Amino acid sequence: MKAALIALRAVVAREALRFIHQRERFVAALVRPLVWLLVFAAGFRAALGLSITPPYQTYITYETYIVPGLLGMILLFNGMQSSLSLVYDREMGSMKVLLTAPLPRWWLLMSKLLGSTAISILQCYAFLAIAALFGIDFAPWGYLAILPALVLAGLMLGALGLALSSFIKQLENFAGVMNFVIFPMFFLSSALYPLWKMAESSRLLHDICAANPFTHAVELIRFALYLDFNPLALLWTLLATLAFGALALWGYDPARGMKRAR
Amino acid sequence: MTLTVEGLSYAYGAKQALDGVTFQAPPGRFTALLGPNGAGKTTLFGLFAGLLRPGAGTISVAGHPMGRAALARMGIVFQQPTLDLDLTVTQNLRYAAALRGIAGRDAGRRIDQALDRLAMRERAAEKVRALNGGHRRRTEIARALLHEPSVLLCDEPTVGLDAASRSAITEHVHALATEGLAVLWATHLTDEVREGDHLLILHRGRLLADGPVAEVTAGAPLSDHFLSVTGAAA
């Protein structure tokens, strides 16, 4: 047990060290959602009228609406980026070092997930701090209440990235996955527009958005930000985390995953 | 016996990479696994590391069948570089030690010892990116020794190194074997094998020879013998 915890700490610390060494990555990860918040949202403010739906109890500006979605965006991009680093790692061979540690494989993969999630959450709070400087702020307890939601959403998206990385042989294939996973996941969700808006345009698109686990991760964060709780979102996010986690474990099973990855 | 391989087979789809391979690597011995490219050496290491699962046969290390107990007794040096270039030698070693549950002062002591054994102590604080190929390899060997394994497995560790680094590393690892470690050293270069070594010749997934070098070659130069058996079998 002690050995497992020492290993966990080392994997998380290594993720943090790698992150510190890549300062551009930190800046890029912050610039992306800030551009959406300060430019895109400003432009769309007038175009998108929002009605009062839970968890909101009063009219809100569009900038306020998309903050949980942009937190989700940070977690989504980071989850994919850390799996990109896994593909890179495996090509570089250091994934072999991790996987030959005499510990259960699920523990090693989960350590890696926790490490990347911790980094993502730091970025989320840095983003919230900058947003607050621009006057987009929330109740103080809301900042604390979103922490467990961010952890769960981060684990879910990290597990998805991990699962994808086990099926991708080379870095080049990864660009395709970015297009086929990140963009559909982000746009077919409640991150940028409420689902009832989507229903006005297309019932089918609405249903796809409603089934997208990313929608539920974003809603979990949105409700938590207002000290509200959305049990359905929690259930969906939990189930998706378990499903993606199981897929990742299967992908890294020596009986198949690494064989294909060679 | 430290490392025992019995009837080991592995196939990539229809391509048989290893076919009923059986051998042992005893402690205190440098066992050279000589084979041309594509012989199945790297597949064999993938099986040792648990990255692949054998189609048939067994591997055991110090009496433990493949699994966590066996992994804990193995030190592996992979063919591809596996160090984190942005971290220092010590940081890389600390990470590896922690993955095996070793931390704190104990880790520091073992790191110093392992670096000393490979004459790498003065490089401890350098970033791996700043090291030459030979020193990077030595760092990887030091890393494989941190947890005091009973067997050291090296998969063509001299690939891409210049002649001087190659001979220095071969020298170092031969010295480790004389200290009592079981060493399995995969290579396609006959000049890395010494007179007193135990020799295995692997070709197209099958073991063609298993015995002391002098016995296998019957007095002929090893390079000639190696060419004749792998050439004839081709």
From TrEMBL, chain A:
Superkingdom as given in the UniProt entry: Bacteria
GO terms assigned for molecular function: ABC-type transporter activity
One Pfam family in the UniProt entry: ABC2_membrane
Primary location group: membrane
TM annotation in the entry: 34-53, 65-88, 113-136, 143-168, 174-196, 233-252
Residues covered by the ABC transmembrane type-2 domain: 24-255
Membrane topology of this protein: Multi-pass membrane protein
Subcellular location: Cell inner membrane; Membrane
Swiss-Prot/TrEMBL keywords: Cell membrane, Membrane, Transmembrane, Transmembrane helix, Transport
GO cellular component: ATP-binding cassette (ABC) transporter complex
Family membership noted in the UniProt record: Belongs to the ABC-2 integral membrane protein family.
Protein's UniProt name: Transport permease protein
Lineage: Bacteria, Pseudomonadati, Pseudomonadota, Alphaproteobacteria, Rhodobacterales
From TrEMBL, chain B:
InterPro entries for the chain: AAA+_ATPase (IPR003593), ABC_transporter-like_ATP-bd (IPR003439), ABC_transporter_ATP-binding (IPR050763), ABC_transprt_ATP-bd_su_PQQ (IPR022467), P-loop_NTPase (IPR027417)
Record carries keyword Nucleotide-binding: yes
Entry annotated with the keyword Transport: yes
Molecular function per GO: ATP binding; ATP hydrolysis activity
SUPFAM superfamilies, A to Z: P-loop containing nucleoside triphosphate hydrolases
Domain ABC transporter, residue spans: 3-229
Matches recorded under PROSITE patterns: ABC_TRANSPORTER_2
Gene3D superfamilies: P-loop containing nucleotide triphosphate hydrolases
PANTHER family, per database record: ABC TRANSPORTER ATP-BINDING PROTEIN (PTHR42711), ABC TRANSPORTER ATP-BINDING PROTEIN NATA (PTHR42711:SF5)
Family in the record: Belongs to the ABC transporter superfamily.
Name the record gives this protein: YbhF protein
Provenance organism: Jannaschia aquimarina
Phylogenetic placement of the source organism: Bacteria, Pseudomonadati, Pseudomonadota, Alphaproteobacteria, Rhodobacterales
Underlying gene: ybhF
